[in-house]
Protein backbone atom coordinates (compact mmCIF):
# COMPACT_ATOMS: atom_id res chain seq x y z
CA UNK A 1 0.00 0.00 0.00
CA UNK A 2 1.24 3.48 -0.90
CA UNK A 3 1.58 5.75 2.12
CA UNK A 4 2.52 9.36 2.93
CA UNK A 5 1.01 12.79 3.41
CA UNK A 6 3.49 14.88 1.40
CA UNK A 7 4.60 14.56 -2.21
CA UNK A 8 8.08 13.44 -1.13
CA UNK A 9 6.69 10.79 1.22
CA UNK A 10 4.30 9.43 -1.40
CA UNK A 11 7.05 9.30 -4.06
CA UNK A 12 9.44 7.58 -1.65
CA UNK A 13 6.75 5.01 -0.74
CA UNK A 14 6.31 4.15 -4.42
CA UNK A 15 10.09 3.91 -4.92
CA UNK A 16 10.40 1.54 -1.95
CA UNK A 17 7.71 -0.74 -3.37
CA UNK A 18 9.44 -0.77 -6.76
CA UNK A 19 12.81 -1.57 -5.15
CA UNK A 20 11.23 -4.36 -3.04
CA UNK A 21 9.64 -5.97 -6.08
CA UNK A 22 6.10 -5.28 -4.89
CA UNK A 23 5.48 -3.06 -7.92
CA UNK A 24 6.72 -4.35 -11.28
CA UNK A 25 7.31 -2.70 -14.69
CA UNK A 26 3.96 -2.10 -16.34
CA UNK A 27 1.94 -2.14 -13.09
CA UNK A 28 -0.53 0.75 -12.93
CA UNK A 29 -0.44 3.24 -10.08
CA UNK A 30 -3.76 4.31 -8.56
CA UNK A 31 -5.49 7.22 -10.27
CA UNK A 32 -4.58 10.56 -8.73
CA UNK A 33 -8.07 11.18 -7.36
CA UNK A 34 -8.37 7.69 -5.87
CA UNK A 35 -4.99 7.83 -4.13
CA UNK A 36 -5.66 11.35 -2.86
CA UNK A 37 -8.93 10.18 -1.27
CA UNK A 38 -7.22 7.09 0.16
CA UNK A 39 -4.44 9.16 1.78
CA UNK A 40 -6.70 12.10 2.69
CA UNK A 41 -4.48 14.56 0.83
CA UNK A 42 -5.00 17.13 -1.90
CA UNK A 43 -4.93 15.81 -5.48
CA UNK A 44 -2.14 18.27 -6.29
CA UNK A 45 0.02 16.52 -3.68
CA UNK A 46 -0.38 13.16 -5.45
CA UNK A 47 0.15 14.82 -8.86
CA UNK A 48 3.41 16.35 -7.61
CA UNK A 49 4.57 12.94 -6.34
CA UNK A 50 3.79 11.28 -9.66
CA UNK A 51 5.55 14.08 -11.56
CA UNK A 52 8.68 13.67 -9.41
CA UNK A 53 8.61 9.91 -10.04
CA UNK A 54 8.26 10.48 -13.78
CA UNK A 55 11.20 12.90 -13.82
CA UNK A 56 13.26 10.29 -11.99
CA UNK A 57 12.36 7.68 -14.59
CA UNK A 58 10.55 5.46 -12.07
CA UNK A 59 7.13 5.73 -13.70
CA UNK A 60 5.68 6.64 -17.07
CA UNK A 61 2.74 9.01 -17.44
CA UNK A 62 0.37 8.06 -20.24
CA UNK A 63 -1.99 11.00 -19.90
CA UNK A 64 -5.60 9.89 -19.55
CA UNK A 65 -4.47 6.26 -19.71
CA UNK A 66 -2.90 6.67 -16.28
CA UNK A 67 0.58 6.17 -14.81
CA UNK A 68 2.52 2.90 -14.87
CA UNK A 69 5.75 1.66 -13.35
CA UNK A 70 8.62 2.08 -15.82
CA UNK A 71 10.86 -0.72 -16.96
CA UNK A 72 14.16 -0.71 -18.81
CA UNK A 73 13.45 0.59 -22.32
CA UNK A 74 13.69 -1.97 -25.11
CA UNK A 75 15.75 -0.22 -27.75
CA UNK A 76 15.33 -0.81 -31.44
CA UNK A 77 18.08 -1.62 -33.90
CA UNK A 78 20.74 0.86 -34.97
CA UNK A 79 21.98 1.88 -38.39
CA UNK A 80 25.01 0.05 -39.77
CA UNK A 81 26.28 -3.14 -41.30
CA UNK A 82 25.34 -6.53 -39.90
CA UNK A 83 28.48 -7.98 -38.28
CA UNK A 84 30.09 -11.10 -39.73
CA UNK A 85 27.39 -11.72 -42.33
CA UNK A 86 28.13 -13.53 -45.59
CA UNK A 87 25.06 -11.90 -47.17
CA UNK A 88 25.11 -8.81 -49.36
CA UNK A 89 23.99 -6.15 -46.88
CA UNK A 90 21.46 -3.68 -48.32
CA UNK A 91 20.07 -2.65 -44.96
CA UNK A 92 22.88 -0.54 -43.56
CA UNK A 93 21.68 2.98 -44.41
CA UNK A 94 25.33 4.04 -44.80
CA UNK A 95 26.80 6.46 -47.33
CA UNK A 96 29.37 5.12 -49.77
CA UNK A 97 32.81 5.57 -48.13
CA UNK A 98 34.38 6.12 -51.57
CA UNK A 99 32.21 9.21 -52.01
CA UNK A 100 33.21 10.96 -48.77
CA UNK A 101 35.65 13.89 -49.18
CA UNK A 102 38.26 12.36 -46.88
CA UNK A 103 41.41 13.14 -48.98
CA UNK A 104 41.14 16.86 -48.15
CA UNK A 105 41.88 16.06 -44.49
CA UNK A 106 45.61 16.15 -45.25
CA UNK A 107 45.34 19.88 -45.96
CA UNK A 108 43.46 20.90 -42.78
CA UNK A 109 45.49 23.10 -40.40
CA UNK A 110 45.20 21.77 -36.83
CA UNK A 111 48.27 23.43 -35.35
CA UNK A 112 46.63 26.02 -33.08
CA UNK A 113 45.35 24.36 -29.89
CA UNK A 114 42.03 25.26 -28.26
CA UNK A 115 42.14 25.77 -24.48
CA UNK A 116 39.76 26.12 -21.57
CA UNK A 117 37.86 29.37 -21.85
CA UNK A 118 38.12 29.62 -25.64
CA UNK A 119 35.02 30.22 -27.74
CA UNK A 120 32.70 27.24 -28.12
CA UNK A 121 32.58 27.53 -31.92
CA UNK A 122 35.55 27.83 -34.24
CA UNK A 123 35.48 31.25 -35.91
CA UNK A 124 35.80 29.90 -39.46
CA UNK A 125 33.07 27.31 -38.87
CA UNK A 126 30.81 29.95 -37.37
CA UNK A 127 31.23 32.16 -40.44
CA UNK A 128 30.62 29.30 -42.90
CA UNK A 129 27.69 27.79 -40.99
CA UNK A 130 25.94 31.09 -40.28
CA UNK A 131 25.82 31.96 -43.97
CA UNK A 132 24.60 28.45 -44.84
CA UNK A 133 21.89 28.36 -42.19
CA UNK A 134 20.72 31.90 -43.04
CA UNK A 135 19.93 30.74 -46.58
CA UNK A 136 17.47 28.25 -45.09
CA UNK A 137 16.18 30.35 -42.17
CA UNK A 138 16.43 34.10 -42.91
CA UNK A 139 15.36 35.09 -39.39
CA UNK A 140 17.14 35.83 -36.14
CA UNK A 141 18.94 32.74 -34.85
CA UNK A 142 21.91 31.61 -32.84
CA UNK A 143 24.29 28.84 -33.87
CA UNK A 144 25.12 25.79 -31.75
CA UNK A 145 27.52 22.93 -32.53
CA UNK A 146 26.70 19.48 -31.14
CA UNK A 147 28.28 16.03 -31.27
CA UNK A 148 26.07 14.85 -34.12
CA UNK A 149 22.35 15.05 -34.88
CA UNK A 150 21.39 12.50 -32.22
CA UNK A 151 23.17 14.60 -29.57
CA UNK A 152 21.33 17.68 -30.85
CA UNK A 153 17.99 15.87 -30.66
CA UNK A 154 18.63 14.56 -27.15
CA UNK A 155 19.57 18.03 -25.90
CA UNK A 156 16.60 19.73 -27.55
CA UNK A 157 14.11 17.22 -26.18
CA UNK A 158 15.65 17.25 -22.69
CA UNK A 159 15.31 21.03 -22.41
CA UNK A 160 11.71 21.08 -23.68
CA UNK A 161 10.14 17.89 -22.27
CA UNK A 162 9.95 15.84 -19.09
CA UNK A 163 9.19 12.14 -18.78
CA UNK A 164 5.69 11.36 -19.99
CA UNK A 165 5.37 14.50 -22.12
CA UNK A 166 3.93 14.09 -25.61
CA UNK A 167 5.85 14.77 -28.81
CA UNK A 168 4.90 14.31 -32.43
CA UNK A 169 7.17 12.14 -34.58
CA UNK A 170 6.85 10.98 -38.15
CA UNK A 171 5.78 7.35 -38.39
CA UNK A 172 7.78 5.50 -39.70
CA UNK A 173 10.71 7.24 -38.05
CA UNK A 174 14.52 7.39 -37.93
CA UNK A 175 15.92 4.63 -35.69
CA UNK A 176 17.98 6.92 -33.45
CA UNK A 177 14.97 9.16 -32.83
CA UNK A 178 12.96 6.16 -31.64
CA UNK A 179 15.70 5.18 -29.21
CA UNK A 180 16.09 8.75 -27.98
CA UNK A 181 12.38 8.90 -27.19
CA UNK A 182 12.47 5.56 -25.36
CA UNK A 183 15.47 6.53 -23.25
CA UNK A 184 13.94 9.91 -22.41
CA UNK A 185 10.63 8.37 -21.35
CA UNK A 186 8.63 10.63 -23.67
CA UNK A 187 5.26 9.66 -25.13
CA UNK A 188 5.41 9.70 -28.94
CA UNK A 189 2.40 10.33 -31.14
CA UNK A 190 2.97 9.00 -34.66
CA UNK A 191 2.30 11.37 -37.56
CA UNK A 192 1.72 9.51 -40.85
CA UNK A 193 3.32 10.51 -44.15
CA UNK A 194 1.97 10.52 -47.67
CA UNK A 195 3.76 11.36 -50.91
CA UNK A 196 3.96 15.06 -49.92
CA UNK A 197 5.37 14.45 -46.44
CA UNK A 198 3.95 14.78 -42.94
CA UNK A 199 0.15 14.91 -43.16
CA UNK A 200 -1.88 17.86 -41.90
CA UNK A 201 -4.41 15.53 -40.25
CA UNK A 202 -1.63 13.67 -38.45
CA UNK A 203 -0.04 16.86 -37.17
CA UNK A 204 -3.42 18.16 -35.98
CA UNK A 205 -4.03 14.90 -34.09
CA UNK A 206 -0.61 15.13 -32.40
CA UNK A 207 -1.27 18.72 -31.33
CA UNK A 208 -4.73 17.77 -30.05
CA UNK A 209 -3.06 15.00 -28.00
CA UNK A 210 -0.96 17.64 -26.25
CA UNK A 211 2.34 17.45 -28.18
CA UNK A 212 4.78 20.03 -26.84
CA UNK A 213 7.42 19.27 -29.48
CA UNK A 214 7.15 18.31 -33.16
CA UNK A 215 10.02 16.71 -35.09
CA UNK A 216 9.88 16.89 -38.90
CA UNK A 217 12.27 15.76 -41.64
CA UNK A 218 11.74 18.29 -44.46
CA UNK A 219 13.41 16.19 -47.17
CA UNK A 220 14.98 12.77 -47.82
CA UNK A 221 13.06 11.36 -44.87
CA UNK A 222 14.73 8.30 -43.37
CA UNK A 223 13.51 5.60 -43.97
CA UNK A 224 11.02 6.50 -46.74
CA UNK A 225 12.93 9.09 -48.81
CA UNK A 226 9.83 11.32 -48.90
CA UNK A 227 10.31 15.11 -49.11
CA UNK A 228 7.86 17.85 -48.15
CA UNK A 229 6.16 19.62 -51.02
CA UNK A 230 5.88 23.41 -50.90
CA UNK A 231 2.09 23.12 -50.66
CA UNK A 232 2.21 20.70 -47.74
CA UNK A 233 4.81 22.75 -45.88
CA UNK A 234 2.59 25.83 -46.18
CA UNK A 235 -0.42 23.91 -44.81
CA UNK A 236 1.61 22.66 -41.87
CA UNK A 237 2.89 26.18 -41.14
CA UNK A 238 -0.69 27.48 -41.10
CA UNK A 239 -1.60 24.85 -38.51
CA UNK A 240 1.43 25.60 -36.32
CA UNK A 241 0.76 29.35 -36.19
CA UNK A 242 -1.77 28.74 -33.42
CA UNK A 243 0.60 26.87 -31.08
CA UNK A 244 3.50 29.21 -30.26
CA UNK A 245 4.40 27.14 -27.17
CA UNK A 246 5.34 24.10 -29.32
CA UNK A 247 9.02 23.56 -30.10
CA UNK A 248 9.39 22.73 -33.82
CA UNK A 249 12.52 20.74 -34.69
CA UNK A 250 13.50 20.20 -38.32
CA UNK A 251 16.01 17.41 -38.96
CA UNK A 252 17.52 18.26 -42.35
CA UNK A 253 20.04 15.40 -42.18
CA UNK A 254 20.63 15.10 -45.95
CA UNK A 255 20.99 18.86 -46.63
CA UNK A 256 24.08 19.25 -48.89
CA UNK A 257 23.31 16.02 -50.78
CA UNK A 258 19.60 16.70 -51.29
CA UNK A 259 18.13 16.88 -54.78
CA UNK A 260 14.82 18.24 -53.49
CA UNK A 261 14.32 21.79 -52.16
CA UNK A 262 14.11 22.62 -48.47
CA UNK A 263 10.61 23.65 -47.42
CA UNK A 264 10.28 24.69 -43.78
CA UNK A 265 7.22 24.12 -41.58
CA UNK A 266 8.33 26.79 -39.05
CA UNK A 267 5.90 29.75 -39.22
CA UNK A 268 7.27 33.27 -39.52
CA UNK A 269 7.81 34.71 -36.06
CA UNK A 270 7.40 31.36 -34.30
CA UNK A 271 9.20 31.74 -30.95
CA UNK A 272 10.46 28.15 -30.44
CA UNK A 273 12.26 26.36 -33.27
CA UNK A 274 15.45 24.56 -34.26
CA UNK A 275 17.01 23.42 -37.53
CA UNK A 276 19.50 20.55 -37.22
CA UNK A 277 21.94 19.65 -40.00
CA UNK A 278 24.24 16.69 -39.50
CA UNK A 279 27.62 16.24 -41.21
CA UNK A 280 27.34 12.42 -41.24
CA UNK A 281 25.89 11.78 -44.69
CA UNK A 282 28.36 13.92 -46.65
CA UNK A 283 31.50 14.24 -44.48
CA UNK A 284 31.27 10.83 -42.80
CA UNK A 285 29.44 9.20 -39.85
CA UNK A 286 32.64 9.20 -37.78
CA UNK A 287 32.78 13.01 -37.81
CA UNK A 288 30.40 13.36 -34.85
CA UNK A 289 29.28 16.89 -35.53
CA UNK A 290 26.05 18.70 -36.33
CA UNK A 291 25.10 22.34 -36.78
CA UNK A 292 22.00 23.69 -35.08
CA UNK A 293 20.29 27.02 -35.72
CA UNK A 294 17.58 28.00 -33.24
CA UNK A 295 15.76 30.86 -31.60
CA UNK A 296 17.91 32.67 -29.00
CA UNK A 297 16.04 31.28 -25.97
CA UNK A 298 16.48 27.69 -27.12
CA UNK A 299 20.14 28.36 -27.88
CA UNK A 300 20.63 29.78 -24.38
CA UNK A 301 19.16 26.65 -22.82
CA UNK A 302 21.43 24.47 -24.96
CA UNK A 303 24.47 26.46 -23.83
CA UNK A 304 23.82 25.56 -20.20
CA UNK A 305 25.18 22.08 -21.02
CA UNK A 306 27.61 23.07 -23.75
CA UNK A 307 30.40 25.11 -22.22
CA UNK A 308 34.20 25.02 -21.99
CA UNK A 309 35.21 22.59 -19.29
CA UNK A 310 32.07 20.41 -19.47
CA UNK A 311 30.76 19.00 -22.74
CA UNK A 312 31.90 21.27 -25.55
CA UNK A 313 32.47 19.88 -29.04
CA UNK A 314 36.14 19.43 -29.93
CA UNK A 315 37.57 22.40 -31.79
CA UNK A 316 39.76 19.95 -33.70
CA UNK A 317 36.63 18.30 -35.11
CA UNK A 318 35.20 21.72 -35.91
CA UNK A 319 38.33 22.69 -37.85
CA UNK A 320 38.28 19.37 -39.67
CA UNK A 321 34.65 19.99 -40.65
CA UNK A 322 35.11 23.54 -41.90
CA UNK A 323 38.35 22.56 -43.63
CA UNK A 324 36.51 19.86 -45.55
CA UNK A 325 33.42 21.98 -46.23
CA UNK A 326 35.42 24.98 -47.44
CA UNK A 327 37.87 23.01 -49.58
CA UNK A 328 37.82 23.74 -53.31
CA UNK A 329 37.32 20.05 -54.17
CA UNK A 330 34.39 19.43 -51.81
CA UNK A 331 31.64 20.99 -53.91
CA UNK A 332 32.46 18.68 -56.82
CA UNK A 333 32.69 15.70 -54.46
CA UNK A 334 29.27 16.45 -52.99
CA UNK A 335 27.71 16.94 -56.41
CA UNK A 336 29.15 13.61 -57.55
CA UNK A 337 27.87 11.81 -54.45
CA UNK A 338 24.42 13.37 -54.70
CA UNK A 339 24.11 12.43 -58.36
CA UNK A 340 25.30 8.86 -57.70
CA UNK A 341 22.79 8.20 -54.90
CA UNK A 342 19.94 9.70 -56.92
CA UNK A 343 20.81 7.77 -60.09
CA UNK A 344 21.23 4.42 -58.32
CA UNK A 345 17.98 4.81 -56.38
CA UNK A 346 16.03 5.80 -59.47
CA UNK A 347 17.48 2.83 -61.36
CA UNK A 348 16.19 0.53 -58.62
CA UNK A 349 12.79 2.21 -58.57
CA UNK A 350 12.42 1.70 -62.31
CA UNK A 351 13.27 -2.00 -62.01
CA UNK A 352 10.82 -2.42 -59.14
CA UNK A 353 8.01 -0.69 -61.02
CA UNK A 354 8.65 -2.92 -64.02
CA UNK A 355 8.06 -5.92 -61.73
CA UNK A 356 4.89 -4.50 -60.20
CA UNK A 357 6.51 -3.65 -56.85
CA UNK A 358 5.38 -0.43 -55.18
CA UNK A 359 7.99 2.03 -53.88
CA UNK A 360 8.00 5.49 -52.35
CA UNK A 361 10.28 8.46 -51.89
CA UNK A 362 12.26 10.79 -54.11
CA UNK A 363 15.52 11.55 -52.27
CA UNK A 364 18.08 10.19 -49.83
CA UNK A 365 20.22 7.09 -49.44
CA UNK A 366 17.40 4.54 -49.34
CA UNK A 367 14.40 3.19 -51.25
CA UNK A 368 11.20 2.34 -49.35
CA UNK A 369 9.56 -0.78 -50.78
CA UNK A 370 5.95 -1.72 -50.12
CA UNK A 371 5.73 -5.50 -50.40
CA UNK A 372 2.01 -5.87 -49.85
CA UNK A 373 2.67 -8.77 -47.48
CA UNK A 374 4.55 -9.62 -44.28
CA UNK A 375 8.03 -8.15 -44.82
CA UNK A 376 9.55 -10.64 -42.38
CA UNK A 377 8.69 -13.48 -44.74
CA UNK A 378 10.11 -11.51 -47.67
CA UNK A 379 13.30 -10.83 -45.72
CA UNK A 380 13.74 -14.51 -44.85
CA UNK A 381 13.30 -15.47 -48.49
CA UNK A 382 15.84 -12.82 -49.55
CA UNK A 383 18.35 -14.20 -47.06
CA UNK A 384 18.10 -17.59 -48.74
CA UNK A 385 18.95 -15.82 -51.97
CA UNK A 386 22.01 -14.12 -50.46
CA UNK A 387 20.61 -10.66 -49.61
CA UNK A 388 20.23 -8.93 -46.27
CA UNK A 389 17.46 -6.29 -46.24
CA UNK A 390 15.89 -4.28 -43.43
CA UNK A 391 12.23 -4.77 -42.55
CA UNK A 392 10.10 -1.67 -42.08
CA UNK A 393 8.69 -2.65 -38.71
CA UNK A 394 11.82 -1.48 -36.84
CA UNK A 395 11.10 2.06 -38.06
CA UNK A 396 7.53 2.02 -36.74
CA UNK A 397 6.77 3.64 -33.40
CA UNK A 398 4.65 0.63 -32.45
CA UNK A 399 7.41 -1.79 -33.53
CA UNK A 400 4.95 -3.76 -35.69
CA UNK A 401 7.10 -6.61 -37.00
CA UNK A 402 4.45 -7.60 -39.53
CA UNK A 403 4.65 -4.23 -41.34
CA UNK A 404 4.71 -4.80 -45.11
CA UNK A 405 7.69 -2.56 -45.99
CA UNK A 406 11.41 -2.88 -46.55
CA UNK A 407 14.10 -0.20 -46.55
CA UNK A 408 16.75 -0.86 -49.18
CA UNK A 409 20.19 0.79 -49.35
CA UNK A 410 21.21 -0.20 -52.86
CA UNK A 411 23.59 2.51 -54.09
CA UNK A 412 26.58 0.10 -54.03
CA UNK A 413 25.03 -2.19 -56.66
CA UNK A 414 25.97 -2.05 -60.33
CA UNK A 415 23.35 -2.52 -63.07
CA UNK A 416 23.67 -6.30 -63.28
CA UNK A 417 23.54 -6.74 -59.51
CA UNK A 418 20.54 -4.45 -59.30
CA UNK A 419 18.61 -6.48 -61.90
CA UNK A 420 19.41 -9.67 -60.01
CA UNK A 421 18.28 -8.06 -56.77
CA UNK A 422 15.01 -6.84 -58.30
CA UNK A 423 14.29 -10.31 -59.73
CA UNK A 424 15.04 -11.94 -56.38
CA UNK A 425 12.85 -9.46 -54.55
CA UNK A 426 9.91 -10.10 -56.90
CA UNK A 427 10.34 -13.85 -56.39
CA UNK A 428 10.61 -13.45 -52.62
CA UNK A 429 7.45 -11.33 -52.43
CA UNK A 430 5.54 -13.95 -54.42
CA UNK A 431 6.93 -16.71 -52.20
CA UNK A 432 6.03 -14.79 -49.04
CA UNK A 433 2.46 -14.20 -50.20
CA UNK A 434 1.99 -17.93 -50.73
CA UNK A 435 3.47 -18.69 -47.31
CA UNK A 436 1.22 -16.13 -45.60
CA UNK A 437 -1.85 -17.44 -47.44
CA UNK A 438 -1.02 -20.99 -46.39
CA UNK A 439 -0.67 -19.95 -42.75
CA UNK A 440 -4.04 -18.18 -42.81
CA UNK A 441 -5.79 -21.34 -44.11
CA UNK A 442 -4.51 -23.49 -41.25
From TrEMBL:
Molecular function per GO: DNA binding; DNA-binding transcription factor activity; pyridoxal phosphate binding
Domain HTH gntR-type: 4-72
Keyword DNA-binding part of the UniProt annotation: yes
Similarity annotation: In the C-terminal section; belongs to the class-I pyridoxal-phosphate-dependent aminotransferase family.
Keywords per UniProt: DNA-binding, Pyridoxal phosphate, Transcription, Transcription regulation
Organism superkingdom: Bacteria
PANTHER family assigned to the protein according to its UniProt record, in alphabetical order: HTH-TYPE TRANSCRIPTIONAL REGULATORY PROTEIN GABR
Pfam families linked: Aminotran_1_2 (PF00155), GntR (PF00392)
Protein name, entry field: Transcriptional regulator PtsJ
InterPro entries: Aminotransferase_I/II_large, HTH_trans_reg/aminotransferase, PyrdxlP-dep_Trfase, PyrdxlP-dep_Trfase_major, Tscrpt_reg_HTH_GntR, WH-like_DNA-bd_sf, WH_DNA-bd_sf
Amino acid sequence: MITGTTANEIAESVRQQIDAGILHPGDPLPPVRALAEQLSVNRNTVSSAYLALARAGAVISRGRAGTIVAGAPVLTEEEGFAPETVLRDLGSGNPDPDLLPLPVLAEVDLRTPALYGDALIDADLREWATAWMRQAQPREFELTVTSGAVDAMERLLAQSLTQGDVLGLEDPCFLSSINTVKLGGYRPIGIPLDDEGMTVEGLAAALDAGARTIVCTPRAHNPTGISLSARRAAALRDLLVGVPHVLIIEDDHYSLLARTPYHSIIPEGHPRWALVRSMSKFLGPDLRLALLASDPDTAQQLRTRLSPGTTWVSRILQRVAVGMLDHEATADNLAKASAHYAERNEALRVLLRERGIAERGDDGLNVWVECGTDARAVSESMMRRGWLVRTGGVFRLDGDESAPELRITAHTLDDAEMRTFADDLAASIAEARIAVANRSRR
